[in-house]
Amino acid sequence: MARPPCYGRVMTLREWSLLLSLSALWGGSFFFAKIAVAELGPLTVVLGRVALAAVCLNTVLALGGRSLMRENAPWSAFFVMGTLNNLVPFALIFWAQTHIASSLASILNATTPLFTVIVAHLLTPDEKMTGGKVAGALAGLAGVAVLVGPDALRAFDAGVWGELACLAAALSYAFAGIYGRRFKAMRVAPLEAAAGQVTATSILILPIVLVFEAPWNATPWPGLETWGALIGLAVLSTALAYVLYFRILATVGATNLLLVTFLIPVTAILLGTAFLGERLEVRQVAGMALIALGLAAIDGRAAAAIRPAK
């Protein structure tokens, strides 16, 4: 009998590389979404993101001779996961980005691992809270606070609800990370899990968009930049990202997986420095160092290396 994955173990270098790839894909989602919500309603952007991703992923399944339209497909699980991992957090974050900057939204999203450590401790038998995980989460959050800096604090007055919406989205992601572990036990492949949840989310969000936003009334009609952002959001930051998400989740567990949210603000800063001519400040370097320390504490690799042998 195959041994079940050990969710509390130290991640391998390959798993870290997948996590870094996922952080780059999801880091881009805040940039794409900020462009899209300038001309489209936040719920419409959610629909475009998940519907286009569903088309991509179901096409890949069909080309491989597979389909979600089979008798034993776990649709109830797809709908729950779609709600927790797509519908609720996407809607909250995209709405928040009509009030706050995309960089701030990504930074607030970095609270997800802290929520996940608590939720996993309460709801799982094998991801219990340890001193290292708590210390790592707090160090990571301290790094996020340093990245924000004092200038951002003075702009909080106009976007308090947007900030709270991002925190609520982070909590939803934490529950999704715990719930999504069951797909491994159900023998649902990562590609099928990704396709199932975005398909379910598309079904859930469509009537809501039709009632509350009526996107066909948008004037002027969205330009090419908005369509390009929507395609990037769907294909890169959703379809491809969720294949990686479920692959990582199946092997290392929710707490390790959601470390990716600590990396997203770092990715945004590095991309801005490399491609937009932005200058990396001392406080940003310090923030990244604290985040790296938090990652090391939660992962346990450094502690295991220096712990004396018994």
User: Which structural class do you get from the secondary structure elements?
Assistant: mainly alpha
**Multimerization state:** single chain
What fraction of the residues are assigned to beta strands by DSSP? Answer: under 5%
Question: How many E-type strands?
Answer: 0
Structure annotation, total helices: 13
Query: How do the SSEs run, as a string of H and E?
Result: HHHHHHHHHHHHH
Question: How many domain units?
Answer: 1
Q: Mean pLDDT across all residues, rounded?
A: 83
Low-confidence stretches: 1-5
Largest sheet: none
The CA-CA distance between the termini, in Å, is: 31 Å
Helix content: over 70%
Spatial extent as radius of gyration: 19 Å
Overall outline: globular
Characterization of this structure:
The chain has 310 residues and is mostly helical. It has one domain (13-299). The chain has helices at 13-36, 42-63, 75-96, 102-109, 112-123, 131-153, 160-179, 182-185, 190-212, 224-257, 260-275, 282-299, 301-306. Helix 5 packs across helix 7 and helix 9 packs across helix 10. The radius of gyration is 19 Å and the shape is globular. The two termini are 31 Å apart.
